[in-house]
Specification:
The protein is of the alpha/beta class and about 475 residues long. Helix content is about 35%, strand content about 20%. The protein is built from 16 helices and twelve strands. Strands 1-2-8-7-9-10-11-12 form an eight-stranded mixed β-sheet, with helices on both faces. A hairpin with a 4-residue loop joins strand 3 and strand 4. Helix 15 runs antiparallel to helix 16. The longest helix has 23 residues.
């Protein structure tokens, strides 16, 4: 602590950061690391593993097709109303979005059936309704919504009706297939958050590379062994997002899966929005709610750099208490070995002050059509579970999985459980529904059967009751194709 105080005093006198990020010492083979210059003088360390694939297996299944049709309306009072217009919105996906919506929230949740939903003009008056257990309001639950809407229209004056401020319509079809490690067109991107490094993904990188996946994990600027510019503008969201864009374009394959943790989730969301055709799936680990990023004005990270450096031992201890469910020798060793929360005070302050991204609001997240897995540790003290529940409500295709034994650094605490969840999600594909039967094939046969029955009934010597039974059996065969086609 005394050493830290002396270094902080020297930092104040010289106006320079006392601890500068340098390449870390590692016992892992150096051939898995690359240094990429994204800009002149801005070099990022990237761990890139292309495993040996003894058997190259091409994708055999066509996968499932999901209709992404939704209408997103933003009203002038700030409310958000989402209508899912797709003919086949997967019920399995909606059931996985566990969690309840806060009654006082200003965001309308997704509607699973637009036919039973109330008109958008009556939504502002319907926010006082109770919220269902599945995270959807009563306007999506049944036939009461139209009646409520009609009652509201008859009783409420016309001046209470809000006018839409912005409307976004999404209409596309996504083909989602299984991604195996033997598929050469699949690449996994791992992006860490503030204070981390690519080493926090050590268990995941080793696990999936052994399964045959190509993995890419960069160090953000100022983290790990990447260069650390001594200018605050180098750590804004847009500067870091541009770095991730260049890394993605350099290593991207035909089908890419993004895995982000904490602040890294925002960069994954940015890439999924910019490259929807190349992003196949995405994983958000303790990423928080779908709100626009904005730095806090009353934060400890707004203190001068020298003061933060003096408080660095306290910050590291606080991170250990809040980031891990248990604070034993194992967790301390994980922090030390994986170089987590080992950045300079200047970089830490610049990173927290540069989290400004007004475009990343709820509408921005609602426009995503990529399937997303949300993983949340129940002991996380940085990100409440309600934020990930809200994220699951806003997203179109989302799974929310809660792990009881983990906290914010869940991929380090529970590597086996996280790896299993991720692998199952990579191999998941929606079921393919059989095409509807055509009615044109059944009509000629039915007409022929009816004509034969008519002839048989007109011929002498035929018993009429038997003819009636035969006609009824043929009639049943006639109705079956029509009833299936309607369903």
């Amino acid at each position: 602590m005394l050493t830290s105080f002396m270094e902080g005093l020297l930092c104040c006198l010289t106006s320079k950061s006392a601890n500068v990020v340098v390449p870390v010492e590692t016992s892992e083979p150096a051939d898995g690391y690359e240094f990429v210059e994204v800009k002149p003088g801005r070099v990022l360390r990237v761990r890139h593993i292309i495993p040996d694939r003894p058997v190259v297996e091409e994708p055999t299944g066509q996968g499932g097709s999901v209709s992404c049709k939704r209408k997103i309306t933003v009203y002038r009072n700030g409310q958000l109303f989402i209508e899912n217009l797709g003919e086949r919105t997967s019920t399995e996906l909606k059931n996985c979005q566990n969690g309840e919506t806060e009654p006082n929230s200003t965001v309308e949740v997704e509607l699973t059936d637009c036919g039973n939903s109330s008109p958008p003009i009556s939504i502002p008056e319907a926010r006082s309704d109770s919220i269902g257990n599945n995270g959807a309001s009563e306007t999506a639950a049944g036939g009461e919504a139209p009646a409520a809407g009609q009652t509201g229209q008859s009783q409420q004056p016309r001046k209470r009706r809000w006018r839409p401020k912005r409307t976004v319509v999404i209409d596309c079809e996504r083909k989602i297939s299984s991604c195996k490690g033997t598929h050469t067109d699949v690449a996994l991107f791992f992006i860490h958050g503030v204070g981390g490094s690519l080493d926090i993904w050590g268990s995941q990188l080793d696990f999936f590379s052994r399964l045959g996946y190509e993995v890419i994990a960069p160090d953000l600027a100022g983290h790990g062994a990447s260069s650390a510019p001594q200018i605050a503008a180098a750590y804004t969201f847009y500067a870091l997002a541009e770095d991730m864009r260049l890394i993605f374009k350099r290593y991207a394959r035909k089908r890419n899966i993004l895995i982000g943790h904490s602040y890294g989730v925002s960069f994954c969301t940015f890439l999924a929005h910019e490259y929807p055709e190349q992003i196949h799936k995405m994983v958000m680990i303790n990423g928080g709610g779908p709100t626009a990023l904005e730095p806090s004005l009353c934060s400890i990270f707004n203190l001068p750099t020298c003061v933060l450096h003096c408080l660095s031992p306290l910050l590291a201890w606080s991170f250990l208490k809040a980031g891990f469910a248990r604070q034993g020798a194992k967790e301390k060793q994980l922090l030390k070995e994986n170089n987590a929360f080992n950045v300079s005070s200047f970089v830490l302050r610049a990173m927290m002050s540069g989290q400004y991204w007004p475009e990343g609001d709820e509408v921005y997240h609602a426009e995503l059509t990529v399937p997303i897995l949300l993983v949340h540790g129940m002991h996380d003290k940085f990100v409440p579970v309600e934020e990930d529940q809200r994220m699951a409500e806003i997203l179109l295709l989302a799974f929310l999985k809660l792990l009881e034994d983990g906290s914010h650094m869940i991929m380090m605490e529970c590597p086996e459980a996280v790896n299993t969840l991720l692998h199952e999600f990579f191999l998941w594909e929606p079921p393919t529904l059989p095409p509807p039967k055509k009615e044109s094939k059944a009509r000629p046969e039915t007409a022929k059967a009816q004509s034969d029955n008519t002839k048989a009934s007109s011929e002498p010597g035929k018993v009429r009751p038997a003819t009636a039974r035969q006609t009824s059996s043929n009639g049943g065969a006639e109705e079956k194709p029509d009833s299936k086609a309607k369903k």
